[in-house]
From TrEMBL:
This is Glycerol-3-phosphate dehydrogenase [NAD(P)+]. Pathway: Membrane lipid metabolism; glycerophospholipid metabolism. It comes from Richelia sinica FACHB-800. InterPro entries: 6-PGluconate_DH-like_C_sf, 6PGD_dom2, G3P_DH_NAD-dep, G3P_DH_NAD-dep_C, G3P_DH_NAD-dep_N, NAD(P)-bd_dom_sf. The active site is at 173 (proton acceptor). The lineage of its organism: Bacteria, Bacillati, Cyanobacteriota, Cyanophyceae, Nostocales. It is an enzyme of class 1 (oxidoreductase). GO terms for biological process: carbohydrate metabolic process; glycerol-3-phosphate biosynthetic process; glycerol-3-phosphate catabolic process; glycerophospholipid metabolic process; phospholipid biosynthetic process. Substrate binds at residues 90, 237-238. Its EC number is 1.1.1.94. Pfam families: NAD_Gly3P_dh_C, NAD_Gly3P_dh_N. The keyword Ligase does not apply.
């Protein structure tokens, strides 16, 4: 306890990697609590080694496609062994099927790695609206330090003992959010949306538990919480992808005009690979995948889901 207290007192400087929507919002939340913050991106004048000099916490909000590259460069920088690495990316690596925290932990086996994930639409956070999130790590003390660094009157941070589940909740819901956008774009109604989100959660639990997550984590803020936020907000880029596909735009048109990253598009492909290898049934993800590939129209995808074999709600 004394050791944890002194660890927290030592935190003065936090470096945020990724100056996109989420990195900038996270940097502001840390600044609000009086810490010194360095915000780095590959476009900034500040070099990465300089950004990391004497830092106690590194927060990564790099999009999935850049995580491996940035991790490799960070590996070549001198960082103190006790530096806490926090990952806020919501995606899966298409080459290795690994999560961002696994990439960080593999590269830095002796550093504490903490996952930060929750229902956190960055625009709302930038508007100073209240929100809650979850931090999780196999190193509980590191998660507690990060909890304190981020917690404020407008950002309520919970700890959770299941880092894999917390990380996968934020990642898997992006695919269901694309489907939710389609549902709203096609004006299918509230009943359809409730069915989609609920069955989407079942699908997240099914694939997430195979990947090592605990079921109960998906019913918390980082699972259901984030699913609700993302499936119900036009601020979500993933939702926007689905919504605009339903209005007849092509994926290329949508991606060209989208402000920022929609991780669900790549995550969907990775999930299909995993599901095929491990024989996991993820019908909603499968229809999102076929829609993104141009193999079905939104209406055909809907029909495929509605006309699947009838079955019990749960398998015991
Ligand atoms: N926005 C949100 O509401 C939330 C987003 N997230 C997650 O955070 C992550 C980032 O999202 P967001 O900030 O919105 O996305 P943005 O597109 O706004 O920003 C992405 C950041 O990643 C950087 N980046 C991308 N590729 C590379 C690369 N190859 N090398 C170095 N840097 C790279 C970008 O740099 P550059 O500008 O130079 O391209 C930019 O700084 C995503 O995984 C997202 O799911 C999580 C919670 C909330
Ligand atoms: O993860 C998010 C909210 O928690 C952000 O969602 P989008 O990436 O779909 O905008």
């Amino acid at each position: 306890m004394i050791e944890l207290k002194s660890q927290i007192q030592k935190i003065k400087l936090v470096t945020v990697l990724g100056a996109g929507a989420w990195g900038s919002a996270l940097a502001d939340l840390v600044k609000l609590n009086g810490y010194q913050v360095r915000l780095w991106s590959r476009r900034s004048e500040l070099t990465l080694p300089k950004a990391l000099e004497d830092t106690e916490i590194v927060v990564s909000a790099i999009s999935m496609k850049g995580v491996q590259d940035v991790v490799s460069v960070v590996q070549s920088c001198p960082i103190a062994p006790q530096t806490i690495l926090v990952t806020a990316t919501k995606g899966l690596d298409p080459q290795t099927n690994t999560t961002p925290s696994q990439i960080w932990q593999n590269a830095f086996p002796h550093h504490p790695v903490v996952v930060l994930s929750g229902p956190n639409l960055s625009k709302e956070i930038q508007m100073q609206l209240p929100a809650a999130t979850v931090v999780s790590s196999i190193n509980h003390d590191a998660a507690t330090v990060v909890q304190l660094v981020f917690s404020s009157h407008r950002f309520r941070v919970y700890t959770n003992p299941d880092p894999v589940g917390v990380e996968l909740g934020g990642t898997l819901k992006n695919v269901i959010a694309i489907a939710a956008g389609v549902c709203d774009g096609l004006q299918l109604g509230t009943n359809a949306k409730a069915a989609l989100v609920t069955r989407g959660l079942t699908e997240m639990v099914r694939i997430g538990t195979v990947l090592g997550a605990k079921t109960e984590t998906f019913y918390g803020l980082s699972g259901l919480g984030d699913l609700l936020a993302t499936c119900n907000s036009p601020l979500s880029r993933n939702y926007q992808v689905g919504y605009q596909l339903a209005l007849g735009k092509t994926l290329d048109q949508i991606m060209t005009n989208l402000p920022g990253t929609a991780e669900g598009v790549n995550t969907c492909q990775v999930l299909m690979q995993i599901a095929q290898q491990q024989n996991i049934s993820i019908p909603i993800t499968e229809q999102v995948y076929r829609l993104l590939q141009g193999e079905v129209t939104p209406k055909q995808g809907l029909d495929e889901l509605m006309l699947r074999d009838i079955k019990p709600e749960y398998h015991h």
